[in-house]
Every structure is written in structure tokens, then in C-alpha cells.
Amino acid sequence: MVLPDGVRPATVRHEEGSIVSIGEEPADDDLGDLVVLPGLVDSHVHVNEPGRTEWEGFASATRAAAAGGTTTIVDMPLNSIPPTVDVDALRLKREAAEGAISVDVAFWGGIIPGSEGEVEGLVSAGVCGFKVFLTDSGVPECPAMDLDDLEGLRLDVPLLVHAEADHLIRPPEGGSYPDYLRSRPVEAETIAIEGLAMLDSPVHVLHVSSGPGADAVAAGGLSGETCPHYLTFTDADVTGPEFKCAPPIRSVEHREALWQALSSGALQMVVSDHSPAPPGLKRGDFSTAWGGIASVQLRLQATWTGAVERGIGVEDLAEWLALAPARLAGIDERKGSIEIGKDADFVVFEPDDRFVVSGPDLHHRHPLTPYEGRRLRGRIRETRLRGEVVFDGDNVTVGRGRMLARK
Question: pTM of the entire structure?
Fold first, then answer.
């Protein structure tokens, strides 16, 4: 078991969904030499329901999460319609999720120009924090905020920022991937992050894609995340629009710098930024295709594959993929680690097994993935939510999830 004090043999007992003891006595259910991790927490998932359920919905997104070892997701305020920028929109989210979710779900709020007055009500309603864009979000109902507007905010919950300086982003001059890379330079990320250090709210930088970006997060005393696609792929791997995301996947030097940033603590977590779209929106070239990668089911194996190559152990994965995201969302009282009093959420993991990714085998609504045909390390044998099996290695049990609020 991966416990806060290290990796060791252990027996966990739970009652009514909560862990009541951790010892070494014989277990009723002996899992042998498999690894038991805390249930993973993914704090960056775009479910898109209501409004764009044909892109992804609570039922399919949480099935994929359960099959990927994630027992809690935190839903982003877009690309649903309406975005979660007021209490009524949050109510619609919760109504859409009711009875459909296979894992627990919490919610981020959003702030757009003119919605600042809704912040207090959303905090009272239990959102985990607020997301903002400094550049075009890609959907018209969620416009960007100016850095000057954010200086007036005084939040006690995290302010999550898509940090790319708008004045440095331009339309691609052509449809190739090098054209797209040049349209969103590293400098756009670093300059935006440097500006965030001046804010009075607790700032968390989303999907950091570059070494200088990670350095700017650390220099500004901010928290930050990266994603499996930035840790796995480089620009040399990109073959089509299924790889398109914003910020873009960059060179091998940036990939290795992100691994170093995680190891040093400059970045604290690895989250999916699961942002699916129908295959029709991913067709075309890099100037027109939708930017987003569907990967909530593959986060553990993709990260573990790269971690093994660099001598990184499962205890770091437990921090990056479970506890740190739970702490960011303010749900670490119950989630993120195997400790007495917390929810009995577990991933039963076979770390040395390997498999080849096939899109039709995934539980996401749409099978298109840049991981298609890629050989990944690790297999999830079970996912348990409050002690109950919600994924048995083949099938997902629907309806066991609950909706959470930040304490």
C-alpha cells in the first residue's frame, strides 16, 4: 500500500465507507503483490454537461474516470451551457449529474466579465474555487478576463488561471503543427504567469507546458500543474489534430523540464485536462480543429510509464495524482490519501503489466485519442469508492458517486 509514511504491506479496514484502521493483521481480501494507491483525484475535467453533452457527459466521463483509477473529479465551468458562473448554473450541473455518476464529483466555478458579483454565492454553494482565462477560451459564452480586472479580487479559495498572454497569441499562419506552435509561443505562457504573482488571491496555474513556465510558477510563489500529454509527447510525436491542445505540446527539452519541475516541487500535480469533442470538430488542420485531449481514463498509466523511465516511484504518483489535487480543491479532509478517517477510496494497480491503447476500449464518449496504439505501463485491476468496487477491471458500476462541496 502507498501510505503517507511510505510504501509497505498493510491491512486497511473500513466501515460505512470510511477507513477505521491501518495495520498488518491478516486481511479478509488479500491482494497479494498488487499495489494499492489512494483513489485518484483529477481536479481538471471538462464534463460539458448540460449544453454540450454530445461532447461528453457526466455518465461517460465518470465511467472513464472509474476505469482510470480516479474516484473523484472536479468539473470545470466550461464547456457546458451555461458555464458555471452563477448559482443557477451550478444547480443545473448538479441536476444533470444526479444519479448518473460513477465516481464523486465536485465543481469549480468560473468568473467572466460581469459575473464578479456571483462569487460569494457560488462559494456559499460549495464550489472549490474559480477558473478564469487570460485569452480566448474557445467558446463564446466564456470570455477572457483582463489581468487588471483580477487585481480587484480577494478570494479565499483558489483562482485557477489559463495563463497565456493574449497579446502574444495570434492566428496560425498555416495549418501545420509548426504554424500552430509559433502562434502560441512559450513567452505567452511565462509573461502571463509572471503577471499573476501580483494578485492577492491564491493563484493556481493550469496546464503548464514549458520549462520557463514552471520556473515562473516557482518564482512567483504560485502553485501549478501539468498534464500527461506534456509529460508523454513532444512536437516530434504530433501527427494530427488529435494532439492539438492549448498551450501546445512542445519540444523534448520542455518535456524533460516539466518532469524536473515535478520532482523539485515547482509543480505539484498531474491532472488530465480532459477536454473531449466530437470527432468532427477534431478534423481538419491545426488552424481549425478543436483544441483538447480526452485522457481522464489514461492519466495514471501515461504518467507511470514516464515515471518508471526516470526512476520515479509510486509514492510520488500518489502525491501528484491524488493528494495534491484534493488539497487544491479543498476536499483533502476526505480524499487523496489512505489515512484513518478518510474515504475508503482505492486503486488496485498492477504496475508491471503493459497494454496498447485502443480508443474503442475507452469509456470516454468519443474514442479519438493521441494515445491510440501507444504501449503504456500498468493495469488497473479494481477501483473502489468508499470500499465498494466501482470498476472490476472490465465493467463500471454506475450511480455510486456523490456530489461534493468544498469544506
Answer: 0.98
